[in-house]
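A reminder before we start the practical. When you read a complex entry, don't treat the lines as separate problems. The point of joint prediction is that each chain is placed relative to the others, so the output describes one connected object in space. Small molecules and nucleic acid strands, if listed, are placed in the same frame. In the example below there are two entries. Take a minute to note the order of the lines before looking further.
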Amino acid sequence: MKAAVLVFPGSNRERDVAKALTRATGHAPAMVWHAETSLPEGTDLVVLPGGFSYGDYLRCGAIAARAPVMDAVRAHAERGGLALGICNGFQILVESGLLPGILTRNKDLRFICKSQHLKVERADTAFTRTYAEGQIIEVCCAHGEGNYFADPETLERLEGEGRVAFRYCAADGSLGGTANANGSVNDIAGIYSEKLNVLGMMPHPENLVDAAVGGTDGLALFSGLAKAA
Amino acid sequence: MSSAEPAITPELVASHGLKPDEYDRILKLIGREPSFTELGIFSAMWNEHCSYKSSKIWLKTLPVTGPKVIQGPGENAGVVDIGDGDAVVFKMESHNHPSFIEPYQGAATGVGGILRDVFTMGARPVAALNALRFGAPDHPRTRHLVSGVVAGVGGYGNSFGVPTVGGLVGFHPRYDGNILVNAMAVGLAKADAIFYAKATGVGLPVVYLGSKTGRDGIHGATMASAEFDEASEEKRPTVQVGDPFAEKLLLEACLELMASGSVVAIQDMGAAGLTCSAVEMGAKGDLGIRLDLETVPVRETGMTAYEMMLSESQERMLMVLHPEKEDVARAIFTKWGLDFAVVGHTTDDLRFKVFLNGELKADLPIKELGDQAPEYDRPHVETPKAAEIVASSVAAPLDTREALMALVGSPELSSRRWVWEQYDHIILGETVQKPGGDAAVVRVEGGPKGLALTADVTPRYCEADPFEGGKQAVAEAWRNLTAVGAKPLAVTDNLNFGNPEKPEIMGQLVGCIKGIGEACRALDFPVVSGNVSLYNETQGRAILPTPTIGAVGLLDDVAKSATIAIKREGEAVIVIGDAKGWIGRSCWLWLVAGREEGAPPPVDLSVEKRNGDFVRSMISAGVATAVHDVSDGGLAVAVAEMALAGRIGARLYAPPAGATPHGWWFGEDQARYVVTTSEQNAATVIDAAAQAGITATRIGTTGGDRLIPGEEAPILLDELREAHEGWFPRYMAGPAVDA
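Here is the predicted structure of the whole assembly.
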């Protein structure tokens, strides 16, 4: 597994992702500056980390979607390469057209940082192979604009094609209500691309990779990826 | 010098916050009338905020050294050795006045300023905390201020990428017209790679880095050194606007630059911007500084020397660089998209000379700008001692159950979840204990060691007895660190008071500093950094004296840290420490009986140390399964918080014979902790305590879904939780009132 982590000037969880990948794969990922025009030779997985890419004073991720390095990411994804966008990374993937829909401000208009349960919708993708289908995992959220929205047609396609990766849920797996703090449609916390090789998700698995710091439910995602290539 | 500038009149001098005798001192110092730019520079350097002129002689009495102290007060932040070649760098600073005028930007730039102080020293920020004080919840402006300040603190820290892991929020009508926003930042650096403001070497380039200079924040520090009046709203343009993205770039660029070996000296541009940073770098290094202002990156045209020297535009740094590394440095800043400009150089004449397009705008003696700032021994009167209030002399308006419900659901003691869930407290992936406990615990990358962090003070105690209150603030912070198992290391103090020109206010400041000094000496807890905020008054009404104490402790192994949550059913609940049921100035007396009276609980520092050391040893031996210090609300509130955190109830014994129930349950006697331990360890703990001369009293047993206070009606944890968690969101969802 050869991983690369993009670094936009306002990325702030690139080190967290690098730590998680190092823990799962045994070696540090390449850190790729936003102004680069290519990914390192042989990259299997590219990660777009959390943060505020270029300040995000405009629409989150809108400028980053047009960064020089993103052409390389698009080409990588078209070739079937794996791409994972977390939080701001998800916003950038959506803005770049690699994933459908949009992420708007949380329904209460406040930033939310809290522990969050997720339901794993399918366990047969490169990202979730170490989870079980329907498994409830505990990760955490930290975002101001994570309210996923898509038009009914798109939603129908996502649901019909099994492209919802994770849903917000309560500890017992029940959906809706306070478990969905940001107001996302269909409780969507993460989605796949058509070929299931691109995943965007709002919560942070990279901050749950250590029993001493909140738990290890996020580590499995990276361990699964480590085995993917 | 330019004739286009305003004439120096007594009115102009007064509007710069300079007193007639201070102006006379300027005339004597330079032997002529100052130019307009020079007047501005003096007002920036000699205001209370930058010069500490009222507090300096008292601050000198604080203990500032210790075997682990690498850098005490006087630099951008304090530095303490934490072993293995690592150092912790931290400081707390106020941003009170701007936050009242423009809560979001005021709070945001307060966070930005303190983060900059920490990374200026070469440290990567790893945690932020804050202490917020607002007016009465029913004051028409309070909700708006809470909402704006919390969003501002979060908005800056979340984007910058530092976990905000702890702090406090308090409400009291005495803050109606002057809220407090005290922000603390904590960073980690290598002990042998700390950077300082002191410049060395003549003829070296002075380099400006970061964002461009605009007209924002001109006279911010002067505003922070005056009382508020109704016209203060008009000062909104003096509040700076924060750009956390630019700050993040500045952080990364500075750390990269420092690693490249290019930096001789570095100083962030905070209060009084370019003036203060340039003067400090020169004065500390016994060097002169020449600035050529036409080289300063600006975002507006036509700025005068006066405006550039007083601008408080954010996210800017000044450095002295090794000349041969200039290209390396420029490349790093260009990579991060930040401005980089050589704006002057160091000289050997000890003068601070400012030129604009070749025209001399200021020529002042650099040492005297800082060192010979006025220093006052202001008259002060001691706060009269209040009488002790004996618990049995006060009738209890509510029974224990109702009083506990009222306290845990009060604005003062309810859960702050609504606040800290807006702060990213998990970023960097090292937050072992998040907000809600006695102290936050953040692991040092790689572990197993970690830092315990807290910010605390009890203003109502300080109001009643500044000396005891000052002691208590330090003891409380020390206790918070101890309660998670950490060895307390050092303190940063943020002293918030009213107008020091009033002898009774000056008496509060003096009393609190004396108390802080006494406690810090007794607990080997030196003060390594700090900040003073005076003139927190509106229309003649001062805030409660609020000397916020930020503190840092060290844990050898974060896995051994204790939390407040009850872990198992059937464990013994033990209180460590003596109590007589001290009800004076307690939360119960204030919030339940409606009286803000009496003497505060006295702090016996030797007992404090003995009890704390005992509790810490219980934690490191793995005997204590949960620990919580007893503070606001007393024993009953402490146990309630432990039960709520662990979702396990407790049955508590009735108060001992002779004790007044509300004194027993809600008294705020100091130096106490509630600990839980297994049934088989209980007797051993109590024996060990007795051998150390410490009172340890079994007060009950954990278990069940309710809290049972003696013979009184039980309280379901669900009910307790609803009261505790409910107040803040309900309050904030209330109708918007525009003041």
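Discuss with your neighbour: The longest helix of chain B spans residues 503-522. What might explain this?
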